[in-house]
TrEMBL record:
One of its GO terms (molecular function) is zinc ion binding. SUPFAM superfamilies: Metallo-dependent hydrolases. The lineage of its organism: Bacteria, Pseudomonadati, Bacteroidota, Flavobacteriia, Flavobacteriales. Catalyzes the hydrolytic deamination of adenine to hypoxanthine. Plays an important role in the purine salvage pathway and in nitrogen catabolism. This is Adenine deaminase. The record marks 220 as: Important for catalytic activity. Belongs to the metallo-dependent hydrolases superfamily. Adenosine and AMP deaminases family. Adenine deaminase type 2 subfamily. Keywords: Hydrolase, Metal-binding, Nucleotide metabolism, Zinc. Substrate binds at residue 278.
Length: 326
């Protein structure tokens, strides 16, 4: 079987996906029309042409703008169901979806509207597409801890729908330690702690995410490679990295896929998974990430299998649920 077919057929889970980052330009226009919103772009092509990023902040500016077309529960439902349909086409059997409530509550959209739309799509996808999903509520790290506490409070009536908390947005200057208390409070409520760390931020931020937030999985984590002791600590704690190859090149975290550290990470004994991050903005869904990183690093079928197996092993599913896939 050729590599592309092998990748397409491989059962896999996606563990690092921002639902707002799955908002395709076509859907931006459709939702803008449905909600009578005037966009500053005249066409899908014009909007796509703006997707050129020098760094994370460049991307975030456009990403938050794009999300402003999401108004009603139906919008959040359509966004999520559309992503889950793409999962079905890629043999993604399980997905752990991040959502950023503050991106919406800041604009006056109710928490309830966001969570109901997303979770109803997940329930329908389980029934119609046989894809399981868990939700990760991510705090925006450029906002204050107090703001994150408000979000935690708003989430409590929907606690049964949310598995974990995450930390995303502008990393530099917003270290994990800024969120120590809200993460402690989140864990008390039963949420599993996760965080983006070491994407643009230094290895010290990964140490903080481990030692202060006590995270159970590291989103990105690329910059751990600058610190041998940190690598050993991550291995000792058996924490996986959710690596996002096309995101890393789009945001210039890595200059070329051929220089991507994914294989080096695997060779060092780190547990790695492949993910799409924000597929509508970074040029490819999950399988495209697999296809391009395989080609660039000449990964073997055994290595691809390992990556897909890790995606289930390091998911937030219960051990019983994982057994189906391992
Ligand atoms: N990094 C940080 N915040 C984000 C990202 C990312 O890659 N995508 C969406 N929010
Ligand atoms: Zn991310």
């Amino acid at each position: 079987m050729n590599m592309i077919n092998f990748i397409n057929n491989l059962p896999k889970a996606e563990l690092h996906l921002h639902i707002e980052g799955s908002l395709e330009p076509e859907l931006v226009f459709a939702l803008a029309k449905r909600n009578n919103i005037k966009l500053k772009y005249n066409s899908v092509e014009q909007l796509k042409a703006a997707y050129e990023f020098d760094c994370l902040q460049d991307f975030l500016d456009i990403y938050y703008q794009g999300a402003s077309v999401l108004i009603t529960e139906a919008d959040f439902y359509d966004l999520t169901y559309s992503y889950l349909q793409k999962c079905a086409a890629q043999n993604i059997r399980h997905t752990e979806i991040m959502f950023d409530p503050q991106t919406h509550t800041e604009r006056g959209i109710a928490f309830k509207t966001v969570i109901n739309g997303i979770s109803k799509a997940c329930i329908d996808a389980k029934e119609k597409l046989n894809i399981s999903s868990l939700l990760i509520m991510s705090y925006l790290r450029h906002l204050t801890e107090e703001d994150a506490f408000k979000t935690l409070e708003e989430s409590l009536p929907y606690k049964h729908l949310i598995t974990a908390v995450g930390l995303d947005s502008s990393e530099k200057g917003n270290p994990p330690s800024k969120f120590e208390r809200v993460f402690k409070a989140s864990v008390k409520e039963g949420y599993i702690p996760l965080a983006h760390a070491g994407e643009e931020g230094p290895s010290e931020y990964i140490w903080e995410a481990l030692d202060i937030l006590n995270i159970k999985r590291i989103d990105h984590g690329n910059n751990c490679l600058h610190d041998k002791n940190l690598i050993q600590e991550i291995i000792k704690r058996d924490l996986a990295l959710t690596v996002c190859p096309l995101s890393n090149t789009a945001l210039q975290v890595v200059d070329d896929l051929k220089n991507h550290p994914l294989k080096k990470m695997m060779d060092l004994g780190l547990k790695v998974t492949v993910n799409s991050d924000d597929p509508a903005y970074f040029g490819g869904q999950l399988n495209q990430n697999f296809i391009e990183i395989q080609k660039a690093l000449e990964l073997s079928k055994r290595q691809l299998y390992e990556l897909a197996k890790n995606s289930f092993k390091y998911s937030l599913l219960s051990n019983n649920e994982k057994q189906i896939y391992l």
